[in-house]
Specification:
The structure is a single chain. The chain is an alpha/beta fold. The chain has three domains: 262 residues, Glucose-6-phosphate isomerase like protein, domain 1 (Rossmann fold); 179 residues, Rossmann fold; 30 residues, no CATH class. The longest helix has 22 residues. The protein is globular.
């Protein structure tokens, strides 16, 4: 259907980045954007006027406008599971009924928070938040990024079923004054339920009379939480159409809202809503998440199998890990939404780190290696620490210099000291890192992921690929006939005694 556009993209003549700047005097103004207090610069990518126009035509052929409207109207955008994707409704931009229901559930969450702060659970000094995947990665990112100066409670996050992770998480929590939040969409997730059971035993061993009374459940299946022994007054619900990796806006964010305060949580939602409005109404060439997806598709078509994200702000150190799940779990597919192989690269491997640490670890490959890696730099213009201004100045200079060095390179008669340049990068510069800008930033990445999926014709809202290994683990635990196993797996089980 869109073969003509893909062919035009593949056959487009490549020019070096520095040549593109010379050939297009208005390049920076066309490929840089400001939305919700964030400056986005895509001018150091190989997108040019013709490519943007071709990609815009491709998005039209792929039904982007209709798919986007279905997302915001509460249509079925997850066809394999017959569901809408209702995370946008959590910030007021979905179908009216879904928005009203999300608002009511958010008020229930606030009422529970008010009760906690009012002493209904006794003295509370800490929160142990248990989940896995998006039900931990999102809230952990929020607390780490925004809570360094204003956390009201000591919040620890636990996802790994490894007992070492449990011991570390509860190491400096007082069980007598700790609340446990268990977040699971279905309330059947093996790792989460195992860690919840361990938390209840930890409370009981410390002399807490009613461990279940210290437990809050967050789920799309409240009946399952009640069956697990949690009183319905301590069960917070979210919609089945809110996927785990899109769930921090919902009741899954209760631990973050406790730690940061309700006003900050509301500001987070408002920032995301502002990005929602931009994504919903901006034309293709000015639509930041869509233009970012154009660059993603261009480099994937050119064989770039990874995309690196570097946070030049310690407060965003968890962003690369968060994006790994968002992008790879959403778009790590090989068939279209109707089950047909699409025969091209889908999501690249997302990875990254923090600057300036990463410069002394992985940037050697970016500058001189044979693997081409589009890089993304995320920074904030204003600092919020107590050190001298020079710290932040040096940090930002390093971020900007890396993008320039990747693009320009530097020739040398010594091949060991020669940099080829022409290596793409993009920069996301926040005016300041606060709740509103972080909400807009995360929503930008969500919509970019969706835009990539529409261009590919895939469903970004299911994730069946995570299930097979877990299913086999359950079967082995239930005593599946080991004779059906391969010799390697059988030998490993025997050596480990499991």
């Amino acid at each position: 259907m869109a073969g003509k556009q893909w062919q035009a993209i593949d056959s487009h003549g490549a020019r070096r980045l520095d040549e593109l700047f010379k050939a297009e005097p208005d390049r920076l103004s066309r490929l840089s954007f400001e939305v919700a207090g964030i400056y986005f610069d895509w001018s150091k990518t190989h997108l040019d006027t013709e490519l943007v126009e071709t990609f815009a035509a491709l998005s039209e052929k792929q039904g982007f406008a209709a798919a986007r409207e279905a997302l915001f109207a509460g249509g079925i955008v997850n066809p394999s599971e017959g569901q809408p994707a209702e995370h946008v409704a959590e910030r007021g931009n979905g179908a009216p009924d879904a928005v009203d229901l999300a608002s009511a559930r958010r008020q229930r969450m606030r009422a529970l928070i008010d009760a906690i702060e009012g002493g209904a659970f006794g003295d509370v000094t800490g929160v142990l938040h248990i989940g896995i995947g998006g039900s931990v990665l999102g809230p952990a990112l929020l607390v780490d990024a925004l809570g360094r100066r204003s956390v009201g409670y000591k919040v620890k996050f636990l996802s790994n079923i490894d007992g070492e992770a449990f011991d570390e998480a509860v190491g400096d929590l007082d069980p007598a004054t700790t609340l446990v939040v268990a977040a699971s969409k279905t309330f059947t997730t093996t790792e989460t339920l195992a860690n919840m059971g361990a938390a209840l035993r930890w409370l009981a061993a410390a002399g807490v009379e009613d461990p279940h009374g210290r437990l809050i459940a967050v789920t799309a299946r409240p009946e399952a939480a009640v069956e697990a022994g949690i009183d319905e007054t301590r069960v917070l619900q979210f919609a089945p159409g809110v996927g785990g990796r899109y769930s921090l806006w919902s009741s899954v964010g209760v631990s973050a809202a406790l730690a940061l305060g309700w006003d900050m949580f509301e500001e987070l939602l408002e920032g995301a809503a502002e990005m929602d409005r931009h994504f919903r109404f901006a034309e293709a060439a000015q639509n930041v998440p869509l233009v970012a997806a154009f660059a993603d598709r261009l480099y994937a078509r050119q064989g770039c199998q990874t995309r690196a994200v570097f946070a030049y702000d310690e407060r965003l150190r968890l962003l690369p890990a968060y994006l790994q799940q968002l992008e790879m779990e959403s778009n790590g597919k090989s068939v279209t939404a109707d089950g047909k192989p699409f025969g091209q690269a889908s999501a690249p491997v997302t990875w990254g780190g923090t600057g300036t640490d990463a410069q002394h670890a992985v940037f050697q490959l970016l500058h001189q290696g044979t693997v081409r890696v589009p890089a993304e730099f995320v920074a904030a213009a204003e600092a919020d620490h107590s050190q001298a201004d020079e710290h932040h100045r040096l940090l930002l200079l390093n971020a900007f210099a890396q993008g320039a060095a990747l693009m320009h390179g530097r020739a040398s008669d010594d091949p060991q000291r020669s940099y080829p340049g022409d290596r793409p990068s993009s920069t996301v510069l926040l005016e300041r890192l606060d709740a509103r800008s972080l909400g807009a930033l995360i929503a930008f990445y969500e919509h970019r992921t969706f835009a990539n999926a529409v261009l590919l014709g895939i469903n970004p809202f299911d994730q069946f690929g995570v299930e097979l290994g877990k299913q086999i683990a359950r079967e082995l635990g239930e005593g599946t006939d080991e004779a059906t196993l391969d010799p390697s797996t059988r030998a490993l089980m025997e050596r480990a005694g499991v």
